[in-house]
């Protein structure tokens, strides 16, 4: 089913995590959930939009760092109303989140990649009578941030990006980059390419783009773990953003909400009529070209990374909130359902536009809401 872009783009959904909570956002390493301004940029929830429904207790969660800023905003709004709930979310990356979920250590996980068949099988051991499902909640462009002194506008394509991150293009004045930027004064500065040190759905989606759009230059199979040789690494989206900010010649990839404090982002030459900027609207155009491939209550999506549609930014991720369709932890289930209901609501989704997250098409969000209502 192709997702149609409806006139209610304002009704498109923004993201969510599978649990409830008061705020106790616990970051790990350099990947602090408060990076980039966080909840302070989002408006407060509207009066009466949050129904606590006797939710209480502490919820443990782990996963995607790309959605950490979204979670912080949701938790701040939710816990202002539901004071008996606390969320401890560690943004340690999608790989860590899925592992924690399938081992029964957390009430929910956030992942920028859908569950694999073996992960679904593992989830059945912790979901009594059910299994883990993917609920698309947060959309957003994966920005390619760079730090090249004297260069305020930079255009790259999939082929140059693949060669940069594979160590084939080594300096910023390389002729392939110069061809795409004829008016730029490119320095001979050495390129410092940074990738994630932890397993990450952001890495998975970024390399899926390289593989789909530049197969002749990106020979790796892809996945949450970085496979190319060379380069430098840092943990989490915020760790990569910090390296770009402080390192001359640096380039890296991270969710757009981390492109703060003057970090410049690459415009992509996709073959469309003009280079495409990393914006939430342009990411939404790309997500609108996705297909639902999940079965049953699972709503995993297949993105078109090689799109050439005008204004569609193809390096886009969708973060899934992973919960059990049946057999959720009984002690935290009321809080889980209450929190999910809020973040999937119109108010919960609309509050995050200021944080740089792209809407999910409204017809998918309707299915997400129906699924949340059916959780047990």
From TrEMBL:
User: Could you confirm whether the keyword Signal appears in this record?
Assistant: yes
Q: Which GO terms describe its molecular function?
A: phosphate ion binding
Recorded hits in InterPro entries, A to Z, give:
ABC_phos-bd_PstS, PBP_domain, Phosphate-bind_PstS
Q: Where is the signal peptide?
A: 1-24
* Cross-referenced Pfam families: PBP_like_2 (PF12849)
- Does the record's keyword annotation contain Cytoplasm? no
Q: Which GO terms describe its cellular component?
A: ATP-binding cassette (ABC) transporter complex
The residues that hold phosphate are 64-66, 94, 112, 200-202
UniProt xrefs under CDD domains: PBP2_PstS
Residues in coiled coil: none
- What are the alphabetically sorted keywords of the record? Phosphate transport, Signal, Transport
- NCBIfam families attached to this UniProt entry: 3a0107s03 (TIGR00975)
- Recorded family membership: Belongs to the PstS family.
The name under which this protein is listed is Phosphate-binding protein
Name of the coding gene? pstS
